[in-house]
Amino acid sequence: MRKEGRLTRWIGWTVIVAALLLLGFIIGWFAKPTRPNTPNDTVSGKYLREFLDEMRPEQIREHLRKFTRLPHLAGTEQNLKYAEQIMKEWKEYGLDSVEMVPYDVLLSYPNKTQPNYISIIDQLGSEVFNTSLAEPVPEGYEDVSNIVPPYSAFSPKGQPEGDLVYVNYGRTEDFFQLERDMRVNATGRIVIVRYGKIFRGNKVKNAMLAGAKGIIMFSDPADYWAAGVLPYPDGWNLPGGGAQRGNVLNLNGAGDPLTPGYPAKEYTYRLSLEDGVGLPKIPVHPIGFHDAINLLKNMGGPIPPNNWKGALNISYRIGPGFTDDFKSQKLRMNIHSNNQITRIYNVIGRIRGALEPDRYVILGGHRDAWVFGGIDPMSGAAVVHETVRSAGRLISKGWRPRRTLIFASWDAEEFGLQGSTEWAEDNAKLLQERAVAYINADSAIEGMYTLRVDCTPSLHTLVYDLTKQIASPEEGEEGVSLYESWHKRDNWTDNRDAPRISKLGSGSDFEAYFIRLGIAAGRARYTKNKKTERYSSYPVYHSVYETFEVVEKFYDPSFKRLRAVAQVRGGLIFQLADSQLLPLDVNQYADALGKYAQSIAQLGHRHPEEMNTYRVSFDSLFSAVENFTVAARDFHERLQTLNKEDPLQLRIVNDQLMYLERAFIDPLGLPGRPFYRHVIFAPSSHNKYAGESFPGIYDALFDIQNSADKQKSWEDVKRQISIAAFTVHAAAMTLTPPS
Amino acid sequence: MRKEGRLTRWIGWTVIVAALLLLGFIIGWFAKPTRPNTPNDTVSGKYLREFLDEMRPEQIREHLRKFTRLPHLAGTEQNLKYAEQIMKEWKEYGLDSVEMVPYDVLLSYPNKTQPNYISIIDQLGSEVFNTSLAEPVPEGYEDVSNIVPPYSAFSPKGQPEGDLVYVNYGRTEDFFQLERDMRVNATGRIVIVRYGKIFRGNKVKNAMLAGAKGIIMFSDPADYWAAGVLPYPDGWNLPGGGAQRGNVLNLNGAGDPLTPGYPAKEYTYRLSLEDGVGLPKIPVHPIGFHDAINLLKNMGGPIPPNNWKGALNISYRIGPGFTDDFKSQKLRMNIHSNNQITRIYNVIGRIRGALEPDRYVILGGHRDAWVFGGIDPMSGAAVVHETVRSAGRLISKGWRPRRTLIFASWDAEEFGLQGSTEWAEDNAKLLQERAVAYINADSAIEGMYTLRVDCTPSLHTLVYDLTKQIASPEEGEEGVSLYESWHKRDNWTDNRDAPRISKLGSGSDFEAYFIRLGIAAGRARYTKNKKTERYSSYPVYHSVYETFEVVEKFYDPSFKRLRAVAQVRGGLIFQLADSQLLPLDVNQYADALGKYAQSIAQLGHRHPEEMNTYRVSFDSLFSAVENFTVAARDFHERLQTLNKEDPLQLRIVNDQLMYLERAFIDPLGLPGRPFYRHVIFAPSSHNKYAGESFPGIYDALFDIQNSADKQKSWEDVKRQISIAAFTVHAAAMTLTPPS
């Protein structure tokens, strides 16, 4: 009995000891984290809310006020001062590092002692009319110096004389119409075109191709005047004395014209000016509509079709030259601008990623402005500034994003996206291997109606999800999300019941990142109502009237619209940098490719007989898109079972997501445009602003209409279809399980 | 007392319970692995030993025997049969997957009914001498059909007639000498040159540039005859009736001439033959030295310098044409070969990586042969086969490499590296993002003396470490390592006390991987004693006498040399695929860059006055190399403290190592050669075989000597120095800590 009792006790104790040990073991086992530092998305979500809520309209107002007091053209002392101030403040806000990155690039300035202008001269060569040398200075800025007068940057010097020919917007089709239908030849003449519809550099290229010896561009009220709105300062319309500055390069993504493909450092070899990329060979000058009336009113020649007529009270005759009464008068351009290699400064700030410091999410926008930059670009720069401030606040609370965040204040965007392109060239290897996404931050507002987003298809879902978490800035829409407000105003009717998102074209700093390097990219801003407001961009665009006041008085008095834009841009980079799984939606890319293939094939099928004769087929493209669609669907299905706790598995899938956009890059570039390498998205050769899908095919089809050798032109189309099909197939391969 | 006792007891028990729980907790905490599946390098090392030891000479012998019985030219049925057999056997050996990947590329074959030959014709046009239509068939192969006669693949059809001009090796400098010193013009004539020194395609290009209407190439005993060795079958020298086949393209890395930049799939757009890349425009034909004597013996014109004389018992006069007695005789080439689009087949086998399936290590070599391919390529293919067999054995023991292993049997290498290049084009996106290294497996033996390794500098250390673990195959060297044996025979005297390792040139399938895509690459084979054996490649190269027997009887009767090569190639891919930390040595790259910069600068300083006049400096390059050297040193220092247990930290560092080679790629390519993109290594424009360091600078300097516009030529040099400096700086950036 006693023995048995002892035994029982012994067993009992052993069991208890074992149980306690086991319990401890189990607790220990499960208490130990499988991996350190795997913050989950719930925590990240909480920080996102704080990040968005921290952004304040009054702060944005203050930033905008601060950086629009003085003109800060690229290459000037004032623009360096603002750069230094931004650097200082970003450091104070708490970024890990902020550096100033200089390049020496080709810029262009008017000659200070010999102004640019255009004259009407009589037969003795005497000037009977001269265009104005400057815009009337807006009130409050009378004492400001260093306001650069309106000019076309990179115009060569020259004083060509000749008869004027009016060519509407100066588009390829306008010149066709001029030469074919109206039988007017622009060769040896000075062309005058209105601003709008396409990028001004394309107008200049077209004028050169047509043999013109000079080109004048003017802002017609039809294109730069909103109905019922007063001219600045009483409203936001362009006064008659205002004119649009702008560069007239055809860089096609080259950045600094003298160092295509390489960063413009001190030791970098520079091409001669004659060999520089995209420099126009004929003088160019911009004028306002007061001056334009004087040049146009006496023109002779045919009366144009109605769609060539602007809103001025003149007949818009084509020319060449003036009517009989003024036959002996000619035009003379007087252009004395200088190209000069000039130092520019980007400001680059960083927050180092906690877990994946070698993955980059970039928010970049330019700082240089033609004059004050009230809208372009400081409405965007103010938003970046507020984003950095808010991110700094989070950092001080212990937050650190999973991936590295990079903030950029670019210089010399107005001179051909130079600051952003040179930095992209400088860092191309790193960006190609490490960049997850680039969000652009140019002008944050160009209208008072609703949100506008242009982005790569894989960002669509993130944009929708995010805008549902942001409040509408519109009065009377309390409690309404930005998504709802946007959806109500701009439904994507043709395609789907969701707010419209457009393709990225070019014309801002995302270009080198998206179109050359293949980094997923997007931009967001507040915009006008495109259905009712027909003017190009916004009326005071690139004029001296782009002031702080034009925003404060008219575009966004409460600064809530800018705050909403800040929340969109900031929210995008936050989610891209901090989500465990990259918030990129491959299915959206598949959908988009399907639509683009349909639409480019439709364009081809406008020539059914020739398609037949030259045996052109889009089948290989459709089959590639089908292949991609299946791969995308399977990819997202596999994501359902992904073990996000396994850092390698997660990284592998994220790499697939990151590199998808890269897969659309053709290292050989589009025909004749080595720096436009994105096979799905690039501007067409005929308008830098408009993003075309399958631009290689688009351009080849565009050329069919004007082709002398149909066989050769259709061979070009077939080759481009083949390249597109291959590229889509190759992209699909990147989505299959790696092995 | 009682109460106190109870309390004490209570405390005692509590302490015991807590201690037990704590003990359990501690055991549980530490028993749990931080991460699953982190095999360490000790385990990997044990498997490496087994992997190397499993490779057997008799197995290699059997593989070689099996795949050299019948001619297997690219595009023929027999070569497809071998592909199917390889596919089947690789599956049996245990690869995870093996697939056949076809492409439709441009190949070239003699016309079966109209043979190619060269005639001496009299003034009536009658043939007084004709070159042989085929090589005498080696004994034992008399009944074999489908032996293609010697021809120059891709020669256009044609029957040019004219006088002969002898131009030594047909190098750029030979043509200079011909035209400048000897005042002989090749225009309108048929050029005859001896094989050797440079790639035959470069000879053809030079003849075209000189205006020749045809070119004949012959194998001179001076270049294809080893002293004291009998001709095949009694020895391994080239019989007088033997001739060297080979393609005469100037592809510069384009792959299929009709689909440059894209894989030659069914849907792929093809250029017309006229627009095809690198196709020669003049007829070309190869002959042996028996025929050559007959063409050369009666030649007239000047007696050449001694270094133009071969080993035939003739005077090697330059021409043009024959001596007085034979003045009326001319030469006629009769070439009837056809270019035709033909299906080729790569075999691709894989072992999926256990932890990083999205990282690729590739072992690739070609399978197609001009005839039997006893040496080229089957000595290499047999080695790959044995490597796959050995890897399969490890798999069956439960091993699986950390990264994915890819084995490739390429087709149509002999027609311009087409199989490997098309696959690289097809998979470019994946390879660019995922490929760690490419090891080439062409001919495994070209001599009986010692090891030869050509590879990228970052592989040097791995090659040395590995060869110390492999036994010397030489008789009487039992217990001596391959490293020691190699070191003793070929010390790298100029540079360092270690076995010589050379730069990669081109001429085999690594080209697209290394020079176009920037994937770390290397090759290894057994070679001759370069100090005493002066002949080019090996005597029977590309002749019908490259049989199984030439290897078995002369080159490697024990098959131990081939085993040693198998162990080097196999060991390299094993270590690259299975090491936790990639075995790439960045410091070695820094050292190499330093030497290359010195040596290219010396080349420039041969023109001290012009360097001064045109203000040419290599300073930016030296400063970039210095920068890289510091970055490399710091990188390796940081590796000392790397936490290899953290999978993300490890992956980040491995990515830096992997992408270093990629950083030397210039997406714009070298001038005029868009597919030669490696700024540090590429063949010069004057010889595809010879790898030059800083080839852009090298070519620009080469052109100086013959330049009419010195200013322009030196501007080219300056531009190339700037590009090289930028590229080295950019590569250095990839080594700094990411953020």
From TrEMBL, chains A, B:
<keyword id="KW-1133">Transmembrane helix</keyword>
<dbReference type="InterPro" id="IPR007365">
    <property type="entry name" value="TFR-like_dimer_dom"/>
</dbReference>
<dbReference type="InterPro" id="IPR007484">
    <property type="entry name" value="Peptidase_M28"/>
</dbReference>
<keyword id="KW-0482">Metalloprotease</keyword>
<keyword id="KW-0862">Zinc</keyword>
<comment type="function">
    <text>Has both folate hydrolase and N-acetylated-alpha-linked-acidic dipeptidase (NAALADase) activity. Has a preference for tri-alpha-glutamate peptides. In the intestine, required for the uptake of folate. In the brain, modulates excitatory neurotransmission through the hydrolysis of the neuropeptide, N-aceylaspartylglutamate (NAAG), thereby releasing glutamate.</text>
</comment>
<dbReference type="GO" id="GO:0006508">
    <property type="term" value="P:proteolysis"/>
</dbReference>
<dbReference type="GO" id="GO:0005886">
    <property type="term" value="C:plasma membrane"/>
</dbReference>
<comment type="function">
    <text>Also exhibits a dipeptidyl-peptidase IV type activity. In vitro, cleaves Gly-Pro-AMC.</text>
</comment>
<keyword id="KW-0645">Protease</keyword>
<keyword id="KW-0224">Dipeptidase</keyword>
<keyword id="KW-0735">Signal-anchor</keyword>
<keyword id="KW-0378">Hydrolase</keyword>
<comment type="similarity">
    <text>Belongs to the peptidase M28 family. M28B subfamily.</text>
</comment>
<keyword id="KW-0597">Phosphoprotein</keyword>
<feature type="transmembrane region" description="Helical">
    <location>
        <begin position="12"/>
        <end position="31"/>
    </location>
</feature>
<feature type="domain" description="Peptidase M28">
    <location>
        <begin position="346"/>
        <end position="476"/>
    </location>
</feature>
<keyword id="KW-0325">Glycoprotein</keyword>
<feature type="domain" description="PA">
    <location>
        <begin position="161"/>
        <end position="249"/>
    </location>
</feature>
<keyword id="KW-0511">Multifunctional enzyme</keyword>
<dbReference type="GO" id="GO:0004181">
    <property type="term" value="F:metallocarboxypeptidase activity"/>
</dbReference>
<dbReference type="InterPro" id="IPR036757">
    <property type="entry name" value="TFR-like_dimer_dom_sf"/>
</dbReference>
<dbReference type="InterPro" id="IPR003137">
    <property type="entry name" value="PA_domain"/>
</dbReference>
<dbReference type="Pfam" id="PF04389">
    <property type="entry name" value="Peptidase_M28"/>
</dbReference>
<keyword id="KW-0472">Membrane</keyword>
<protein>
    <recommendedName>
        <fullName>Glutamate carboxypeptidase 2</fullName>
        <ecNumber>3.4.17.21</ecNumber>
    </recommendedName>
</protein>
<feature type="domain" description="Transferrin receptor-like dimerisation">
    <location>
        <begin position="616"/>
        <end position="735"/>
    </location>
</feature>
<keyword id="KW-0479">Metal-binding</keyword>
<dbReference type="InterPro" id="IPR039373">
    <property type="entry name" value="Peptidase_M28B"/>
</dbReference>
<dbReference type="Pfam" id="PF04253">
    <property type="entry name" value="TFR_dimer"/>
</dbReference>
<keyword id="KW-0812">Transmembrane</keyword>
<keyword id="KW-0106">Calcium</keyword>
<dbReference type="Pfam" id="PF02225">
    <property type="entry name" value="PA"/>
</dbReference>
<dbReference type="GO" id="GO:0046872">
    <property type="term" value="F:metal ion binding"/>
</dbReference>
<keyword id="KW-1003">Cell membrane</keyword>
<dbReference type="InterPro" id="IPR046450">
    <property type="entry name" value="PA_dom_sf"/>
</dbReference>
<keyword id="KW-0121">Carboxypeptidase</keyword>
<comment type="subunit">
    <text>Homodimer.</text>
</comment>
<dbReference type="GO" id="GO:0016805">
    <property type="term" value="F:dipeptidase activity"/>
</dbReference>
